[in-house]
């Protein structure tokens, strides 16, 4: 079965490719043929992720989408999660989550129609529960972060997140030496998000 891997980390400082070798090994061990890999640094709380949308455009009908865990694919609110599922369902994409063994077992075990229906229902339930937990975890962490910032500000200790000056310098150098490059091209070369490129270039304007 042709398989597409999707990898995500939340910030530019995190290694989005951390699980790539592990997922490639998992695919090989289980007879899945990796045909493409999409990697990005972006929040899982939004559908506006460049590589996620590239993946959704390029994945073919009936192919497998392999992710490490549900929270790598989604920390979306309920409405956006329904939109993402609809986009995957429109192409009959089979979602395999390494951390949920039944999502793969249902593809490979020859069972009768009743058992397949039960397995599908179990997988759907597990994915829904874990996607809700991923969103709740995101929301709680954001709230704790806001509370911490508010407390630090009240105490006069908050200085904001320090800029990654080396990354900023790299972005500026790429734009200066290659004015024709798009923000997407610069982000790919600098291994950062388009949003980061946008913020740096706006700040230099």
What features would you describe in this structure?
- With 205 residues, this protein is of the alpha/beta class.
- The chain folds into two domains: 2-135, Resolvase, N-terminal catalytic domain (Rossmann fold), CATH 3.40.50.1390; 165-204.
- The chain has helices at 20-29, 50-58, 70-73, 78-90, 101-108, 113-154, 165-177, 183-190, 194-204; strands at residues 2-9, 33-41, 64-67, 94-97.
- A four-stranded parallel β-sheet has the order 2-1-3-4, sandwiched between helices.
- The radius of gyration is 20 Å and the shape is globular.
- It starts with a strand and ends with a helix.
Instruction: Identify the CATH homologous superfamily of the largest domain.
Output: Resolvase, N-terminal catalytic domain
Order of helices and strands: EHEHEHHEHHHHH
Task: Give the termini distance in whole angstroms.
Answer: 48 Å
Strand runs, count:
4
Total DSSP helices:
9
The CATH topology of the largest domain is what? Rossmann fold
Q: Could you say what the CATH architecture of the largest domain is?
A: 3-Layer(aba) Sandwich
In the predicted model, the low-confidence regions spanning at least 5 consecutive residues are none
Helix content: 55-70%
* Overall 3D shape: globular
| Overall pLDDT confidence | 87
The CATH class designation of the largest domain is: Alpha Beta
User: Radius of gyration from the CA trace?
Assistant: 20 Å
**Total count of domains:** 2
Briefly, what is this?
By secondary structure, the protein is an alpha/beta fold.
Task: Please render the helix and strand layout as text.
Blueprint: E1 2-9, H1 20-29, E2 33-41, H2 50-58, E3 64-67, H3 70-73, H4 78-90, E4 94-97, H5 101-108, H6 113-154, H7 165-177, H8 183-190, H9 194-204
Parallel strand pairs: 1-2, 1-3, 3-4
């Amino acid at each position: 079965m042709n398989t597409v891997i999707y990898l995500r980390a939340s910030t530019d400082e995190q290694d989005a490719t951390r699980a790539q070798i592990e997922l490639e090994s998992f695919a090989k061990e289980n007879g899945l043929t990796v045909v493409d890999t999409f990697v990005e640094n972006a929040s899982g709380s939004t559908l506006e992720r460049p590589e996620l949308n590239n993946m959704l455009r390029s994945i073919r009908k009936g192919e497998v989408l392999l992710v490490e865990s549900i929270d790598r694919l989604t920390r979306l609110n309920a409405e956006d999660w329904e939109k993402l599922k609809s986009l995957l369902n429109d192409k009959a994409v089979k979602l395999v989550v390494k951390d949920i063994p039944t999502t793969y077992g249902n593809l490979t075990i020859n069972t009768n129609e009743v058992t397949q229906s039960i397995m599908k229902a179990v997988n759907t339930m597990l994915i829904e529960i874990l996607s809700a937990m991923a969103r709740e975890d995101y929301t709680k962490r954001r709230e704790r972060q806001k509370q911490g910032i508010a407390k630090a500000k009240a105490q006069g200790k908050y200085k904001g997140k320090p800029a990654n000056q080396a990354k900023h310098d790299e972005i500026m150098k790429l734009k200066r030496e290659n004015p024709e490059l798009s923000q997407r091209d610069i982000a790919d070369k600098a291994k950062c998000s388009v949003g980061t490129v946008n913020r740096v270039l706006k700040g230099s304007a």
